[in-house]
Design brief:
Elements (H helix, E strand, L loop, with lengths): L12 H8 L7 H8 L9 H25 L1 H22 L1 H6 L8 H14 L7 H13 L8 H7 L1 H14 L14
Helix pairs in contact: 4-7, 4-9, 6-8, 8-9
């Protein structure tokens, strides 16, 4: 009996294609059995296990890249951004967005009235909590929010909440990740 010395030859592209085509249907030993009647060298179960790990890693990356380039997914992402921005516009209201200037609201009564108006607008989303949840999650990721919740901010500093919403609307992009965004990752 001869003892093997050194490593077996590296697999060819054709051999890898042959092995990869069976990885999801057959066990390691079944793949080795299938290879018996091929021109490819005999391989060990360890070799097949390594190919299985490589295949799984490559598959995961390829699936992620295909999702990124998928026009349906890209359109869904675009629509999500539009909906969150529209939510910000609705929560603040056109009149506050158009006339906002921190210097115009220096009396506590005006600030309290704005806080109440912002709080009342939350009711617009009673029937669609997922949309409000998405906005609220993205809001907390805004740098100026420093992780502060929207509900707390409209009570403590409603003008800052308006500032952040204006920034989000003008920028047209979202920071962070909500439960809807997680679907695409």
């Amino acid at each position: 009996m001869f003892k093997k010395i050194g490593k077996a030859a590296e697999p060819t592209a054709e051999e890898l294609e042959f092995i990869y085509s069976m990885l999801e249907q057959l066990s390691d030993s079944e793949i080795i059995d299938e290879m018996q009647n091929t021109p490819y060298p005999l391989r060990t179960t360890g070799f097949i296990k390594r190919r299985r790990r490589e295949f799984a890693a490559a598959k995961k990356i390829l699936e992620k890249n295909v999702k990124i380039d998928d026009p349906v997914v890209n359109e869904a992402r675009r629509q999500h951004v539009v909906r969150v921005i529209e939510t910000a516009k609705t929560l603040v209201g056109k009149e506050l967005l158009d006339t906002y200037d921190r210097d115009n609201f220096d009396s506590p009564n005006e600030t309290e009235a704005i806080s109440e108006a912002l709080d009342n607008r939350l009711e617009y989303f009673d029937g669609i909590p997922e949309l409000l949840d998405a906005f609220l999650r993205h809001f907390t990721y805004e740098e100026k929010a420093n992780g502060q919740l929207y509900g707390d901010m409209i009570v403590q500093d409603p003008l800052k909440a308006i500032e952040i919403c204006r920034l989000l609307i003008l920028r047209g992009t979202l920071l962070g990740e909500c439960s809807i965004c997680k679907i695409w990752h």
